[in-house]
Amino acid sequence: MPDPVSSAAAPVARLIEAFHKLPGIGPKSAQRLTYHVLRVSREEAASLASAITEAKDKVFFCSVCQNITDTDPCAVCGDSQRDHTSICVVAEPLDILSLERTGYRGLYHVLHGVISPMDGVGPEQLRVAQLLARLKGGEVGEVIVATNPTLEGEATAMYIARLLQPLGIRATRLARGLPVGGDLEYADDITLSRALEGRQDI
Amino acid sequence: MPGSRTYSTEAIVLRQRRLGDADKIITFFTPNYGRVEAVAKGVRRTKSRLAGHVEVLSHCNLLLHRGRNLDIVSQAQLLENFRGMREDLSLVSRALYAAELVERFTDRSMDSFPTFTLLVEMLQNLDKRESAPDTVLRYFEMQLLNELGYRPQLDSCAACDKRLLEETNYYSGHAGGALCPACRVDTPISGPLSVNALKMMRLMQRVSLATVGQVAVDAQLRAELERHVRDQINYSLDLEVRSAAFLRDVQRQEQRALATAPPISTSVPG
């Protein structure tokens, strides 16, 4: 069976390859996207291309919180209205978007991953040193560790808590419990026992 | 079971990898089917019914559906979550190291029952804090080497086969066991093997974890055992164990903490 990629014209094949490298894009989707791009006007294709290069060129990591930004410090770190005594530590930049929806108005710190020993990701591969450097100023009173409640997320949280202990800064962890709309019948033991421990008066 | 599309099994979760938007590929270790990789659909969603039951290092009951490449997890029920181990970084880092060893050393459809039992025993021991965590890990490594056919030769010299005398000998992962002083010259070694370390390694090959856990091991002996057993593991696996780096990191933290707090004493033999 002839390979559909190699039988296409070389520039087309290259574009299919490029789309295929994107996460979640299989070979069929890559072909569909490619032929879509070939059908649209030159301007539209050029604006897509320039949007990609612009995002790549103008965006970098905030020197304070390590989030992706186009200003340094980023909009969150530079905002004097926000609470500068509280830092919420997250694994990925996308997690900030979720937390912003809750109305949290402190600062953030992005680790860019979690400790995953089997994949060779340890604290040195994360932005942990940058977090410690931020805490030296003495302004920060609380570090909220908001990594995922998975084994790797928990290990990262415990590691950070150990580092903070000698500094005398309060380290907190997001609570665990039942999701809204969830079902007790399917709850696992850890979640359920944590939910019981963290019960509140009604 | 030919013809049957679904099968149920006990399993320990070794590892998870992300797949697509909300799914994960989970590596399980089972008593009868060896290492099994299966897709767990939707486990990255908050309301997933599966997620809490298939966390890494949990012991669960599974109902799996045979797929073309990968099986699919259709139901999961947690048996033991090892919460005591899970919430202590020192214990988790050791358990993860053991999980990586099992993942790297084992294969699909192998006779996995003894290794499965060993892994469960180790996790239970760590969870209940029955013995010093490093002793548990060394015991696990020595028994794993036994199971997989890499049992180190410790009674006679691995090169000249002469009986080892009660003196300082040497250890070599390359030779697959202890070396007498005369044979050490031609073979790469991991270092001198003290009489105590040799006795401890022999003990770990022969008796139960409960018995080995009774032996008090000081910091020097612990470091020596780790060096030799690690050398054998790295040689037999022909790969660096990736979790070892993080484990070292945690051990360094522990040593710093020891400088300020009294140590957790290990039990002395009766």
Short description:
Chain A is built from 8 helices and 6 strands. Chain A has helices spanning about 5, 10-20, 25-40, 40-60, 95-100, 130-135, 150-165, 190-195, and strands at about 60, 70, 85-90, 105-110, 140-145, 170-175.
* Low-pLDDT sequence parts of chain A: none
* Biggest sheet statistics of chain B: 5 strands, mixed, barrel
Could you tell me which chain pair has the largest interface and how many residues each side has? A-B, 27 and 36 residues
Instruction: Give, in spatial order, the strands making up the sheet with the most strands of chain B.
Output: 1-2-3-5-4
Strand order of the largest sheet of chain A: 4-3-5-6
Let me know the average pLDDT of chain B: 88
Query: What general outline of chain A do the C-alpha atoms trace?
Result: globular
Sequence-ordered SSE layout with sheet pairings:
The complex is a heterodimer of chains A (202) and B (270).
Chain A (H helix, E strand, L loop, with lengths): L3 H4 L2 H11 L6 H13 L2 H17 L1 E2 L6 E2 L13 E8 L2 H8 L5 E5 L17 H8 L6 E4 L5 H14 L5 E4 L15 H9 L5
Parallel strand pairs in A: 3-4, 3-5, 5-6
Antiparallel strand pairs in A: 1-2
Helix pairs in contact in A: 2-3
Chain B lengths: L5 E14 L3 E8 L3 E7 L18 E7 L5 E10 L2 H4 L2 H17 L7 H16 L4 H15 L21 E4 L4 E3 L11 E3 L1 H12 L2 H4 L6 H19 L5 H18 L10
Parallel strand pairs in B: 3-5
Antiparallel strand pairs in B: 1-2, 1-4, 2-3, 4-5, 6-7, 6-8
Task: For this entry, give a set of tags.
heterodimer, A: 202 residues, alpha/beta, two-stranded antiparallel ribbon, globular, B: 3-stranded antiparallel sheet, disordered C terminus
Characterise the protein shown here:
The complex is a heterodimer of chains A (202) and B (270). Chain A is of the alpha/beta class. Chain A has 8 helices and 6 strands; from the N terminus they run H-H-H-H-E-E-E-H-E-H-E-H-E-H. In chain A, helix 7 (151-164) links the parallel strand 5 and strand 6. In chain A, helix 2 crosses helix 3. The longest helix of chain A has 17 residues, at 42-58. The model of chain A has no long low-confidence stretch (mean pLDDT 88). A 5-stranded mixed barrel of chain B has the order 1-2-3-5-4. Chain B has a 3-stranded antiparallel beta sheet with strand order 7-6-8. In chain B, helix 2 runs antiparallel to helix 8 (243-260) and helix 4 packs parallel to helix 7. With 270 residues, chain B is of the alpha+beta class. Chain B is globular, with a radius of gyration of 20 Å. Classes of the chains: A alpha/beta (202), B alpha+beta (270).
